[in-house]
Amino acid sequence: MADSIRLHYDVSGTDFTLAGAASSDVKRTLKQLGISPDAIRNVAIAMYEGEINMVIHAGGGEIDVEITENDIRMVLEDHGPGIENVELAMKEGYSTAPDNIRSLGFGAGMGLPNIKKYTDDFRIETQLGVGTKLILKVNI
Amino acid sequence: MAKIFHSVRLDADKCQGCTNCIKRCPTEAIRVRNKKAYIISDRCIDCGECIRVCPHHAKYAVSESFNELIKYKYRIALPAPALYGQFNNLENVDYVLTGLKRMGFDDVVEVSKGAEILSSATREMFENGELKRPVISSACPAVVRLIRTRFPNLLGNLLPTCAPIDLAAKIAREKAKKETDYTDEEIGVFFITPCPAKRTAIKSPLCHENYGISGAIAIKDIYTVLVQTMDKLKSEDVESINDSGIIGVGWCSSGGEAAGLLKERYLAADGIENVINVLEELEDEKLNDLDFIELNCCTGGCVGGVLTVENPYVAKARIQRLRKFMPISCNALEDYFSLDDLGWTKELTPSPAMKLADNVITAMRMMSKLKEIENSLPGLDCGICGAPSCRALADDIVRGYAQESDCVLHNIQVGGEDDWLPAPFRVKVQNEDVGEKDED
Question: Regarding the domain delimited by B355-425, which CATH topology (the fold level of the hierarchy) does it fall under?
């Protein structure tokens, strides 16, 4: 199917107030397309968690979204420190967020587990010192 | 498509075709065409933001005039509690209620009475565990319409009950029929309203039939006569009518309905921008630890309605003082109704107003085109094309309501001359000195 919509977002690494802007825009686009509410919710939650992760851990990054007739694919890529132990990071409640971030109510250790929970396809590629890439898919 | 009823209207004679209102509309429901604003009916939620912002008073709210009363033999006023905050040095709300009777109403039933019953009903529904949490208040009709239009995913979280005004009307009508020989047609029941959205909800309810309310009279329209009538009242003339307490009257300002649930895990937001932000977060399931969300489109809650007279903060302060001497609550659900009497009888469906097309494939093609057009537009959101933003113009273009040439700058971007434009809009540099940055 040739028809697909591609969206690109740069996520600022320093500004918490901007985190969520990308997921909000994607949400608006999906609503106008008449995509099912469940799929929209899943995309919005996964993307928002991803955006927050980029701000907390990686100094920002980039998000590419592709909407097709059957699914919504998201690639979230950063050039941050990478994840040392992916298995541990995927555990609910595990977090390496610093105290100042936790005091803002973030860093509960639910980011990656939530992203996995709300997506139909979840792949993570990470390398220490190079960065992290999440490849996600939500079926429509 | 059936014509949608609205209370917010445009006075084309007063409209100058400026762009103030298009920018403030939360559902992007206004465009300027032929030097006049134009309201897109299926998007308008009757919130009244455009009335607030229009410098030419070209936006107005339709409501029933006081003369409407002559159509009825027995007239009942249902004053919103926000009315109590409109008067200086008021000691006792019975002055207001007696004043209404002296003005020409045969009976007065407080809307705050309905509010207390609804608070009691909501507490019971929470106890029964039948509500989807977090529960969103359905008391502000503009919020309900906003959710239908922009946040349809949240429709299932709305409290599925009628509003305080509906219960007050039902009580008032039954009381009148019991105490008099008048028929339903002879009895006129009028809401004294702080806002146009409530009138729309009465005239064109989304989730149930009209509860017998004949019309809505704006607080601002009866204010002058009411004040004069109240001034003439001697203390011995004042009847004892007030039959609601702190909980019911508290509904007039933001947080009042939530406080009446006697729960601590609630959030109350007011002002349309704040309401939208909370709805966004709710949609992303970030507020799942809350039981109740109270949202009011107007700043401060109903005391901030566009049909009130007094500044919302002043009104709130006054009501706070009046409430001090009231009992906590005077009305409970079981005194009047059962839960079955106040539920929804019609399904609340999402509004399709923002959707590009019914078919997803068609919608996707339109969206691709929309994004392409949006990227080709200057991104200034200047409003000269009559749409609130470049994105909204792109949206209009793919729907066939506008064209790219409506953008004055678009023609320049594709190579036209821009000498004739005012400086902020010129693309080409005309003077080397202009725009030079300060050193260090």
Answer: 3-methyladenine DNA Glycosylase II; Chain A, domain 3 (1.10.15)
